[in-house]
Amino acid sequence: MSNGLSQDCFAVLRQLRSIRRVVPSSVYQSLVVAFVLLRLDYGNATLAGLLACLLNRLQSVLNAAAQSIAGLRRSEHITDALPSFHWLRASERIKFKLAVIVCRALHSTAPHSLPVGSAALRRQSADETPRSPALVDFQSS
After folding, report:
1. How many domains does the chain have?
2. Which residue range is the domain that position 68 belongs to?
3. Do the domain assignments include residue 83?
4. Model's pTM, two decimal places?
5. Per-residue three-class SS string for 48-76
């Protein structure tokens, strides 16, 4: 799933690079966020527990998007530019999305497509240990 997703995102980035010099940088950044990052974020909660090699592909999409916005060449390092965008890494984006879904389910603000899951979360008390092992460890970095 993520391989096709990363290929789609790279294709969109290639198309957007053709207009990079024509539009203002703020417009270009908005286009990259709208067409690439939102595509990565849509349904990324289903990517929990993904293999590291597939997560690396998603991270390379984020790096390529940041390089494109910053106007860096492939040979230039992206690590200095990434903090300026305030973007989470691919694995952190997935964990954050899961945390938001759980929080919304606990506070009954989840979409109507999650009524069974939210009721199950409310029934489980805070001191009760879950019966199944956790799929995602939110404490690890």
Report:
1. 1
2. 2-88
3. yes
4. 0.71
5. CCCCHHHHHHHHHHHHHHHHHHHCCCCCC
